[in-house]
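Hi R.,

Here's the input for the zinc ion complex you asked about:
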Amino acid sequence: MVDASGERVADVVVRGGLVAEVGPDLAVPRGATVLEADGCLVSPGLVDLHTHLRQPGAEDSETVETGARAAALGGFTAVVAMPNTDPPVDSAAVALEVLALGEGAMCRVAVAGAITMGRAGERLAPMGELASLGVRLFTDDGTGVQDGAVMRRALEYARGFDVTLAQHCEDEALARGGHMHEGEWSSRLGVPGIPAEAEEMMVARDIALTRLTGGRMHFLHLSTARSAALVAAAKAEGLAVTAEVTPHHLTLTHAELAGYDPVFKVNPPLRVQADVAALRAACGDGTLDAVATDHAPHAPERKDDTLDAAPPGMLGLQTALPVVLGALCGSAGNGAGGDGGGRHAAPRHGAPAMTRAAVLGLLSWRPARIAGLARDQGGDQGGPIEPGAPGNICVIDPAATWEVDPVRLASRSRNTPWAGRAMTGQVRHTLFRGEPVVVDAEAQR
Ligand SMILES: [Zn+2]
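And here is the predicted structure with zinc ion in place:
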């Protein structure tokens, strides 16, 4: 068993939706269902801060139901649904619609609200009304709030509701027209690029605005070494900032675009090897608080297009855990850890491998806190696994190997960058509110 206090050997009894007993060699209660977990890690359920569920508006790409099933199969017991739906989550009515869709889902579906009406970057959304429905994170994700004065007002407004703003850091003027990282490969391929500075300028600006307002800011999907360094400096200064990184930015580089395959088109774009190394180090030294998937399904008829026409984004929920364990713990075998395939990131140099507990912290109890879903915040996520805790648990076989087949993923879309690659580490069981929703890596409904 593993949670914030580390690893230990134990049995876990779950009854009536709650953890009832934890300890070595417990007797099996009469009539109980036994889920084998020999050699497995029993962890608090994973929590994804950044999931695009596409409903309402793009149900051909994903629905709350299919996205939540993919999440459960990936070990997640909660996801935060991004508000860039159609219509966007900039009103109580749309937030209530998504929350209602999440009621019967296979994991908890929390909802992020938009910072501005229509995500247009001008007028503030009704944060107080949304906060009263339980919305804890606000973001215009998909785009960043471009106008510094609007972001300042949003930070000041958010303080009154004890909610967190989450920024997609991208200066639109600098990024416009780009389809991949601006660098050696974009030059070689003749593809317009997005410079690292398009992200870093907004990270720097928003750190300044956090200082100015005393507000709280979460940085979404950071992708460069200098972004991480800016966050480290802001934390050293005592500012209330947190930051996440995606599994793909911890593993893949812009060289993946060599074949013009749009499956590797993502925003922010895949960067260079030195960025991958720095982001891994920033996970280990506490600069980065969470790994979040940025699960971004796109129906094949749109994603299977030319590199310039295809929308950015890739699936993440069902592959995050093995990819991240491979990248940060150095567990063998994953394409994610570097398998000599040549084009993706090599194994880390220098920085020591993280413990499995520390890596699961990035995927579970630390994001749970940022999302406002931790138990001492009134939520039900992130452990610890102890009597009385909600039965939100995932059981991971760290040695199991499997190959990613896009057709077999639960998502309605197929745009995984890991198609055909071997993974080491698999979610064997997921319990959501005590119900085994995934057993032996199969969804139960
Ligand atoms: Zn984004």
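One thing worth noting: The chain has one domain: 43-382+413-418.

Cheers,
M.
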